Amino acid sequence: MIKGVQFWKDRDYYYVQTNNPTEEILRKRSDKDWLVSCGPSAATCCLAAMGHDVDIRCPGFYRPQSEEVLMDYFNDPRNYEALKKARPDTPPDVWHGNEVPQFYPVAVPAVFGVPARFEWGNDFDKIAACLVQGKAVQLCLVKPGHYVAAVAWDDETQEIIYNDPWPGRFPDRNGFNRRMGRAECRANVKPFLIVYGDDE
């Protein structure tokens, strides 16, 4: 049986990192290393799949991309003091804030009003338990160094189901509802979790 967040199998709640304004600026200015918004895109995948309203509304008809506004939070100097408190050894005026996992529990509640928690460790069973409880978990892969959104747990196959905001890295160019087993998680997920919808 598969258990997960509310819209784990609905592609309409899947966001990719290759189509937002920040990526377009970087793509136009560089012929390499321009895919940097996987973290905000994975976070948005987590929140949307949980059923949270992530739409950004403007007075006019333009609808900014949700992950782009989260990216803006990390790069807005007005937020640097709050981010410094979360990880004092990593100045947000030097680092790409979206790369720093401890910054997400500061940024996501401010932008989307959803509680988030950072914790050290790579516990496959804990990730599965969060998913069964309807909480999404943002994970970071070792190779490539890249964020993904865990959205469901398949008890029968003992696999995490996740959405990858960089679909082009797969031969079939599909990042939606990929699967990861215990061995892959142990070998290729960095030792930290960002849990959404958890205010503990």
Overview of this protein structure:
With 200 residues, the protein is α+β, with helices and mostly antiparallel strands. The chain has one domain (2-196): Cysteine proteinases (Cathepsin B, Chain A), CATH 3.90.70. Helices cover 32% and strands 18% of the residues. It has 7 helices and 7 strands. Strands 1, 2, 3, 4, 5, 6 and 7 form a 7-stranded antiparallel β-sheet that branches. A hairpin with a 4-residue loop joins strand 3 (137-141) and strand 4 (146-154). Helix 2 (38-50) crosses helix 3 (66-74). The longest helix is centred in the N-terminal third of the chain and has 13 residues, at 38-50. It starts with a strand and ends with a strand.
Summed up, what is this model?
The chain is of the alpha+beta class. It contains 7 helices and 7 strands, in the order βαααααβαββββαβ. The two termini are 27 Å apart.
Number of domains: 1
Biggest pleated sheet: 7 strands, antiparallel
- Count of DSSP strands: 7
Regarding CATH, which class? Alpha Beta
Q: Pairing-aware structural class of the strands and helices? A: alpha+beta
What is the number of helical segments per DSSP (H or I, 4+ residues)? 7
Q: What are the defining features of this structure?
A:
200 residues; alpha+beta; Cathepsin B, Chain A; seven-stranded antiparallel sheet; 7 helices; 7 strands
What layout of secondary structure does this protein have?
Elements (H helix, E strand, L loop, with lengths): L1 E3 L16 H9 L8 H13 L15 H9 L5 H7 L17 H9 L3 E5 L3 H9 L4 E5 L4 E9 L4 E5 L14 E3 L1 H7 L3 E5 L4
Helix pairs in contact: 2-3
